[in-house]
Write a structure and sequence with these properties.
The chain is mostly helical. The chain contains eight helices and no strands. The chain is elongated.
Amino acid sequence: MTPADSDTEDTADVRRVLAGETSAFAGIVRRWQSRLVNLAWRFSRDRTAAEDMAQDAFVSAFRGLRTFRGESSFSTWLTAIALNSYRSWLRDRPPARLADWRPPPTADVEDRERASVVQHAVARLPPRYRDPIVLFYFQEMDLAETARVLGLREGTVKARLHRGRKLLERRLLARQETFDDGPER
């Protein structure tokens, strides 16, 4: 299914829900559940928490469905709601843990460790840098879509991506230096 097909189905389901056929929201959930859980997992690093976060996002979307005006794609609108919901969820909880992260089985040990360290570092970035990085690099949104979801100008997103990468680089280099200076075994 192409994004345009999905958007057409989503818009049709929105109309049906607003016309009183609330069961049509199940189609939206079916099409978007895995993507919203995946996005939530990038923030929480916990599968159960990610599922709860996605459920909260769907509840928020259902309650706010009347505010969808079609000025942007449904995917942009829903992702923005999910992102705001996930930010609220994170404000009320401790930082993400790495214990529940599972690297891909095909990656070698060094690649898995590197990916784990990078993802953990991204999760600990300030939200102004973390959110654009997660959407742009992990959710593979283009710059325009990332800007729409975050409600920012493209230039602002570019700047935050740049600053976020630089901060991430500094933190990872500092971490590496700490390990390099550690005791020999």
